[in-house]
Amino acid sequence: MCSRIKYRKFVLNFLLLIFSLTIPKLKPIVSKLRHRILLDYARETLGEMISTNLTWQEIKTSHPTFSFEDFRDFVSNSLKICPNIPAKWRDLDLKCVDYIINPSKLRNDANAVAHSATATEMAEAILYLPEESDDRTRLTKIFEALHNQRPQEFLS
Fold first, then answer.
1. For the segment 15-29, what is each residue's pLDDT rounded down to a tens digit?
2. Are residues 14 and 47 located together in one domain of the fold?
3. Which of 43, 44, 55, 78 is geometrically suited to a Cys-Cys bond with 50, CB 3.0 to 4.6 A?
4. How far from 65 is each of 55, 59, 68, 77, 101, CA to CA, in Å?
């Protein structure tokens, strides 16, 4: 599972890098998304270290009566007692564990960015996809349904 997550993160980071290099004004947006990716990746990795047979979500839902503080303490203690946890993970303090497992301003900022693109930004993003790709074709049709224009017409 870890390698699949790493591959998806790699692909997403690569695409974000391409967009940030081709559209400089996207750099602040890409940075917020990367913060979120880092936290999500850390959370999934943390889950894999704590339990080899449960996903992060399953670990979280297996403790339904825990308050946030109880769950954070459970995770922090698990880092200390589970075998084969790397030293850098064992050394994380409660604030770092909070950052990883708690919905935070960083996570909310990334959510806001992901859901606040203007029509112009969406059109530009579609046009950066390869012309013959299925993604571009489908996103163009969806954009046209929303805005009554194809992305290239919208931008001209």
1. 666 666 666 666 677
2. yes
3. 78
4. 18, 13, 10, 17, 16
Question: What integer pLDDT is reported at residue 19 of this predicted model?
Answer: 62
CA distances for 114 relative to 34, 133, 150, angstroms:
11, 22, 21
Q: Around Cβ 116, how many Cβ atoms within 10 Å?
A: 9
pTM over 0.85? The answer is no
6, pLDDT greater than 70: no
The tokens for 110 are 């990334």
144 plus 97 within the same structural domain = no
- Check whether residue 24 and residue 74 sit in a common domain: yes
* Alpha carbons 66 and 72: distance in angstroms, whole number: 9
For residue 25, what is the DSSP state? Answer: G
3-state secondary structure of 88: helix
* Distance separating alpha carbons of residues 90 and 97, to the nearest angstrom: 10
Residue 14: the pLDDT is 67
Range of the domain at 142: 117-156
Span 116-134, pLDDT tens digits: 777 888 888 888 888 988 8
Q: How many separate domains does the chain show?
A: 2
